[in-house]
Amino acid sequence: MPSKPKTGAPTAKPTRPRSTLASRLLGAAILSSVVLFVVAVAVQLMAAEREGMRAKERARAAAIAVAGRLGSDVQGLKRLLQSLAATTLRDTPAADDARATLDQLRPIVGDRIRLRLVPVGTADTDTRAPLPVSFSTIELLRRAERGAVNLPTEMHQVGTPDMHAAVATPVTGALDGKVRGLLIAALPASALQQAMDALGMQGGRFELLQTIGDRTVSLAANAAAPPVTGRPAAEIDVPGTIWRVAVWPETKSAIDYLFTATVAAPGIALLLAIGWAWGIWLRRDFEADATLIVAAARGRPLVRKADGKPPVRL
Fold first, then answer.
1. Which of 76, 136, 288, 290 sits between 20 and 30 A of 119, alpha carbons compared?
2. What local confidence, expressed as pLDDT, does residue 314 receive?
3. Across 158-180, average pLDDT
4. Are the C-beta atoms of 262 and 15 separated by less than 8 Å?
5. How confident is the model at residue 53 (pLDDT cuts 50, 70, 90)?
6. pLDDT tens digits along 186-222
7. How far apart are the C-alpha atoms of 88 and 174, rounded to whole Å?
8. Per-residue buried b or exposed e for 223-232, using 16+ beta carbons within 10 Å of the residue's own CB
9. What are the beta bridge partners of residue 153?
10. 3-class SS of residue 313
11. What do you get for the CA distance between the two ends of the chain, in Å?
């Protein structure tokens, strides 16, 4: 009867020693990469905050400049009207025959500015005239009748092709000083739009605002700027008017700066690859040395090198 082959206990597969140093190096590379990425993100976020503050300061300075320019233009128009009311038009009756006198002033005031002389007590609207009289104009005239000579400029006919900035001043008699008529001037809205367009893309969007009742309307904006939403960063009052210049500065979002921070990603990936490759190389080198040492301790005559070269006798 053939004998059964003896079956012994399964021999445990020898485990190769692992290199603790290689694991530590790889861990250090991973930790360094994470720290590098966190630092890059933090630097970019701080840069975004600083750039946002500088953008707001630049936009506010530009808004102050354009508000001052518009206020200066309006004050110049007011002074011109007051001068005409005190000299040329002082003895001119407030009637239709005053149109000839106003036509003679065309070389002085220019082609863009329209003038109209209306009698005291005007209460009827006239929207078909070259310079229309609306309810807002009548309210302005009533204040001028009471002797106000420095009324704030406001925009009339808002939302229509005839939208204009209205200025009014009383015309008094030379002898008695009583109000004999009211001089109205209309500056087209296109003149204000040109002043806003001159800003171009100076750090954001600028709008000229006016409050009408319980709502705020936009009168003009720099055409090169894209539409915006939300509250403006600053609102600057225009001297001598009821207008405000609102500004929305152009700033980069935090996402844009985080995208910039990802530029460091290739460097981080390279650092990880170097750490991983270095760890693998060290582990193989240490395993080969460990095999040689173990073989020598067990008294083996031959140990084959890891590079495949002929064995070396111990």
1. 76
2. 44
3. 84
4. no
5. confident
6. 989 988 888 888 777 666 889 999 998 889 999 998 8
7. 11
8. eebeebeeeb
9. 241
10. strand
11. 46
CA distances from 113 to 5, 70, 140 (A): 120, 15, 18
Residues in Cβ contact with 266 at an 8 Å cutoff, skipping those fewer than 6 apart: none
Alpha-carbon distances, residue 219 vs 51, 111, 120, 172 (angstroms): 30, 22, 30, 33
φ, ψ (nearest 5 deg) of residue 4: -75, 140
Q: What is the pLDDT of residues 116-154, one digit of tens each?
A: 888 888 888 887 887 888 888 899 988 888 877 678 899
**CA separation for the pair 110, 80 (Å, rounded):** 12
3-state secondary structure of 71: helix
61, 63, 50: which is closest to 205 by C-alpha?
63
Q: Which two tokens stand for residue 296?
A: 């020598």
Per DSSP, the three-state class of 90 is coil
**Statement: the pTM of the whole predicted model exceeds 0.85:** no
* Segments of the chain assigned E as strands: 114-119, 154-156, 164-172, 179-188, 204-212, 215-221, 234-237, 243-249, 302-303, 312-313
pLDDT tens per residue, range 71-87: 988 898 888 888 888 87
State mean pLDDT over 30-54. 72
Is residue 117 within 8 A of residue 92, CB to CB? The reply is yes
Gap between the Cα atoms of 71 and 46, Å rounded: 38
